[in-house]
Structure formats: structure tokens, C-alpha cells
Amino acid sequence: MKRYLNGSLLAIAGLCLALNGMAQDKATDKLDTNEVKKVVPFDINLQVRNLYTWRGFKVSNAPITDVDMHYNLTKDKSLAVGVWGGASFNGEYKEFDYYISYTKPTYSFSIWDVNNISDFPNARLFNYNPGSTSHFVDVRAGYKFGDAFPLTVNWATIILGRDTHPTSDGGVKNSYSHYSELDYRLWKDGTSELHVFVGGGFAFGRQANFYGDRPNVVNTGVTINKDLVLFKYHMPIAATAMFNPEKNYGALQLIVNVF
Asked: Could you tell me which residues are beta bridge partners of residue 224?
């Protein structure tokens, strides 16, 4: 009996050691997988648009593709630096931007160096002369209220670049144009949402600004967001119908997030 008990105890001990080893192996595998995910801070996104509108401007009437490539400086991906570029299918629109952003669930802050070279065939990449530059530096902030009151407030100010007005001595001076937008979610069902928005452009102490000849509403309309599923592949899409009262035109933009 004693010999039987000893054998049983040895067998149980061996089984426990084996199970413990398997558990450690699984934990190690899981840890290794998580570590691989943690050490890949780079990300890239691709969008396709039937045309390109931005703050009430029809930037491109032709379809475009745009790519966002960025590096996450924090593990929660709240702080990132990146580059954004777009080009139209007909080659008339070209843009290459740099940015740094800090994003949380309820608020965001970013600085963008916007470099649309479409109308600057001889543009130099690092030319910031206000009289000839293709750049403008845009400082942006946003705040999102909770689900009980689904309103988002956005503000942007151009602090440098081709947002200028002539001076009495024949030079140019920065206009410091502002853009403010209110976006309210009217309806939500799963991944589908309906938003209404209104945005205005102005410059303190001046009539003319980057967005028009006077302070005015320059961008208003509705946006529908939904998650399109194709063979189990999720592809977020957004359709925006916008109207610019200042320039008296409208457009319908469709954005497909490829990845």
C-alpha cells in the first residue's frame, strides 16, 4: 500500500509539474504576443474620396486618395506625430502635410503644417516666406460632450503661412484667420450615425479672412457614417452633403476608409 501511495503521489506531482509547465508556456506565448503588439508604434491609413471638401472649400473636384502615416509616442496612442498626403486622380491636386496630435476620448489638440502645392508649381518644401509660401500652420482644438449631449466643438487658428493681407508699406501681414465648428449627432443605431454641422470663418478686426471676404458661415450640412461589411471585412464610410453660404456652392463627398 505504501509503495502504491508513493507511486500515486509521484504521478500526481509529475502531472502537476507538466500542467504548470504548459501554463507557463501559454503565458509566455501570450506575453510575447502582447510584447510584439506593444513594440509596433507605427500605423498607416488609406482613404479614397469621390472629391475633396475641407472647411467649406472644394479642394478637389476629382477623386483623390489620401494616406496618413504616423508614429504613436505613447502606449495608448494619444500622442502621435505623422505625415498626411493626398493626390487627385487627374494630378491637379497635391498635398503633403506634417502634424503632431494629442487625442483623448473627450478632447483633442493638434498642430498641422498644411502644404497644398496644387497652385504652387515651383513650391519649395521648406519655404515659409509669407509672400510666396505654399504652407500654413494650423492650430486645432476640439471638445466632445458626453453621449447625453452628443455635441462636438472644434476651433482652429492659422498662425503662420499664406493666410495674409497687404500692409500699407507694400508688405504682407498674417491675418490669423479662425474657423469654428459645431457638430451634433442627431441619431445613432449601432455603427450608423447622422450628424448635422455648421462652421464659420472669421478674423478678429478684419472683414476678409482665409475663408471668405467677410465673417460668415462657410460650411454647413449633414454627415452619415456607417460601417460597411464586405465578406467579414469592415470598411467605415462617410457621406457628407455640404453647403457654403459664403461662396454659394455645395458638394456631396463620399469617404471610404480602406484600412
From this structure: 194, 239
Nearest-angstrom CA–CA distance, 162 and 254: 29
3-state secondary structure of 12: helix
Question: Cα torsion at 70, 75, 79, 80 (round to 10°)?
Answer: -10
Which residues contact residue 10 at a Cβ distance below 8 angstroms, ignoring those fewer than 6 apart? none
pTM confidence score: 0.83
Binned at pLDDT 50, 70 and 90, residue 129 comes out as very high
Q: Which three cell numbers stand for residue 256?
A: 471610404
> 3-class DSSP state for residue 36?
helix
User: What does the alpha-carbon distance between residue 15 and residue 11 come to, in Å, rounded to a whole number?
Assistant: 6
Chain center to CA of 55:
14
Q: Grid coordinates standing for 95?
A: 498635398
Candidates 215, 95, 210, 201; CA nearest to 155 is: 201
Residue 210, helix vs strand vs coil: coil
pLDDT tens figures, 51-107: 999 999 999 999 999 999 999 999 999 999 999 999 999 999 999 999 999 999 999
Query: Where are the alpha helices (H) located in 39-88, listed in sequence order?
Result: none
Q: How confident is the model at residue 52, as a pLDDT? A: 98
Q: Which candidate, 56, 53, 126, places its Cα nearest to that of 93?
A: 53
Amino acid at 140: R
Q: Name the pairing type of β-strands 151-161 and 233-244.
A: unpaired
